[in-house]
Amino acid sequence: MENRTKKLPFRRYFSITRAGILEMAMFRSSRVIDFVGNMVYMIVVYFLWRAIYASTHTVSVNGMTFIQTLIYLTLAGAIFSTLNNYLVWKMGHDIQSGQISLFFTKPMDFYLREFFYSLGNVATQLVLTFIPTFLVVSILSGWALPMGVNLLIFLPAIFMSLVISFSIDFIVGTICLYSQSIWGINMMKEVIILLLSGATIPLAFFPEAFRNVLMFLPFQAIYNVPLMVLVSNTYTWIDYARALGVQAFWMVILVAGARLFFRSSSRVITVNGG
Amino acid sequence: MGAVIELENITKVFRVLNRHAGLRGTFTDLFSRDYKNLVAVDHVSMSIEEGEMVGYLGPNGAGKSTTIKIMTGILEPTEGKLLVNGRVPYANRTLNAQNIGVVFGQRSQLWWSLPVIESFRILKEMYCIPDKVYKNNMEMFDELVGVSELYNKPVRQMSLGQRTLCDILASFLHDPSVVFLDEPTIGLDVSMKSKIRELISVLNREKKTTVVLTTHDMGDVEALCRRIMIIDHGKLIYDNNIQQLKQFFGSYRTLKILSAGNVSFSEADLAKYGRQLLALCPETRNVVFGSDEEWLTVLVPEDEISLIKVLDHMQTLIPFKDVRIEEITTESVIRKIYEGNCDAKPTLEA
Fold first, then answer.
1. What is the mean pLDDT of chain B?
2. Whose CB among A221, A244, B177, B260 lies 3.0–4.6 Å from B319's, allowing a Cys bridge?
3. Can you give the pTM of this predicted structure?
4. A residues 75-104 near B, CB within 8 Å?
5. ipTM for the complex shown
């Protein structure tokens, strides 16, 4: 009995990650469709941006060539389907149905539990959707992507992207405790992130003043930073360090914010009922 | 043997918004400060010993689930003191969670799309159950209900009964000292109900686990519990053993008759049937006649006269179109308690 009351080890959260992987892999056809969806998106991006570049009569626009833009946006799409974990929907649903009270009867921290579950989802998506898309893009662009240290730096960068985007989702999900609207709030979040992070239009194409403002917001740390790490030919060690530093900064702030917000909000449940 | 659960004057008051109907009403509710207080649990005190199996009864909305939520640490009481395993549940939620098991009949803690064995494996990790304990428990579960053929079935493909069975096993897996079962047999057929009752009773006996069972099925309680608590409108109105309760109405059943001819029964009709039945079988004076819409109801005290005998006699008095036999419901138990003459608190020796 005694050994039951002490603090449980951290590794138990990995069982949740395992479940996240299993659940993702369970729906095989979904993974194929995600990949096909990314390919269709690439075709759309190809024709749209070819027209844009054709109208400018220059090789590069805002310092990015057509091929670089194509690679950037296709991979942004792939990162989107990798990081997209429906957390807001899940939390909103758990809150509305009262299922969330079940999690309170488990010896686990709710934030960590959801995070490690997402980690499993993302790891699966990374292997089954992102890497195939990455390979196809590399081949079609005639191996225009740099293949060196950038691939290694990309791994911690995409991990921090996950933590940042997860924490934003978690904060938005927590708002569902108050708002009761899931769809509207999720839509708002999605539009803001996709536009301000550079996932739909590379940040290089934004007016400079606006871009400078965006650099001080956390959203670009989700898409722009890891993508630039991956596609840029000119990044130096200092650039890599700065990229990871910016991500680490936002990661710390958003994790703390998400956890504090949820802690104070869970009083809504313990006081007013699930 | 100490008390595992102790509640002292626990009160829970919810502040709820006075909601208005319609789109406009819903919108104005966003800014409304029009709250009212709802007392869900009203000064409830109880003490539950180790290894006890307690039935916690009450009609819908009586405060059963709220009490359970307070004991499991989901809710914080507005007033009062409570200890579960010597700890205050809402203040030490994670620690408390390690020593309790919970099943909410309407919800599942199992992983929906995964084979059920994965849920058990996750629970093993989550509670850090030692290999040996896990293995022994899984063997015991298989022996009891033969679940091993279900292991590879995804939970979403299970029937409600199979899922409930697995949910109950999951709540016992980490050898908790208390298990809370909130309406575990809801929506199940008779054979599954009895299978689940059997399982709960064996687990309680073998593992010495304290079980708190909420239900509004009197059958669950009769089959499982020696001690019963009844809550109504947030107040604990009965806390005693089941024999005490049964003395008063356990032996009653209601016979409902739909007549082929007459469809409405006046007071005079009812009195007439009473006299006629008494003439046929003078040994009972306590058969009560009543009417429920077009049905004639006959409350039969079975320790005085068998239901079949009454049915037999009634057949000579009225032409039957349909007959039903109903067990006594929680609602009528509560009505009886309010009517008095039932000893609601334990006497000293109990």
1. 85
2. B260
3. 0.82
4. 97-99, 101-102, 104
5. 0.84
